[in-house]
Amino acid sequence: MKIIELEVTDSTNEYCKRIANGEDVIVTAKRQTSGKGTKGRSFVSDGGGLYISVMRHNPVQSGCAFKIMVDSCTAVCKTLQSFNLTPVIRWSNDVLVNGKKICGTLIENTFRGDTVSRSIVGMGINVNNVLPQDLQEIATTMQEAAGKDFDVSAVRDALVKNLQKSYSLKQYKSYINWFGREILLRCADGEIRAVAQDVAEDGRLVCTIDGKTVKVSSAEVSLRL
Q: What are the Cα distances from residue 21, in Å, to 14, 57, 95, 126?
């Protein structure tokens, strides 16, 4: 897969869209000026972090779109693990270390019929970057977690290698340590207490609410551990 390494760009996802010509590509940047998170949020992308997007064409059938999330989140976890950190996936797309967010994922899929005709997966890993004061309670960096600096290029190379592999749902779930625990589901009407049980093949979270087993999607609720 072609790899493009940038010093700075507005957003690696947006860069992928501008160069899209049917070729699969990985784009990395040392800094983003207009990083994007989920649900339209901005994503702080200062120097010292790793910002990367993977663009693939016709990766899966639309009914199997969660496989894109499985591959990307598992690749991030494998990478962090290789640097002696202990990652945990917070369904569906956040990766935590020591209970704090260290990586977020933004997936932008284009559909044609029953196929994902193009998928752009953007990831931002906090490596040595300094976090804004208002994020320090909920986010962390590899540097903070390990008490030392990391070679961002080495982290990038490990992630690029891992992103070119395929992973199973079982491997994705191996980074979840909160099954059987009480969680909070945030929805438009407030918060609901539930007990997490599993993640289904289609990506929905299986949980027990008031004694009943239900499946919820990340489009409907967000998870608070």
A: 14, 10, 31, 30
* 25, 17 contact by CB (below 8 A): no
Residue carrying structure tokens 């008031």: 210
- Cβ within 8 Å of residue 169, ≥6 positions away: 70, 199, 201
Q: Which two tokens stand for residue 64?
A: 């199997």
Edge-to-edge strand list for the sheet holding 115-125:
2-9, 25-32, 50-57, 115-125, 100-112, 94-97, 87-90
| Strands ordered across the beta sheet of 190-199 | 212-216, 205-209, 190-199, 182-187, 222-224
3 contacts: CB under 8 Å, gap ≥ 6: 25, 26, 27, 28, 160
CA 224 to centroid of chain Cα atoms: 16
What are the pLDDT tens digits along the chain (225 aa)?
A: 999 999 999 999 999 999 999 999 999 999 888 766 554 555 666 789 999 999 999 878 888 999 999 999 999 999 999 999 999 999 999 999 999 999 989 999 999 988 999 999 999 999 999 988 888 899 999 999 999 999 999 999 999 999 999 999 999 999 999 999 999 999 888 899 999 999 999 999 999 999 999 999 988 888 988
Residue with tokens 């590509």: 25
Residue 219 has a CB neighbour count (10 Å cut-off) of 10
**Sequence letter at residue 109:** N
Position 194: which residue type?
A
Tokens standing for residue 170: 């079982």
Q: Which amino acid does the sequence have at 208?
A: T
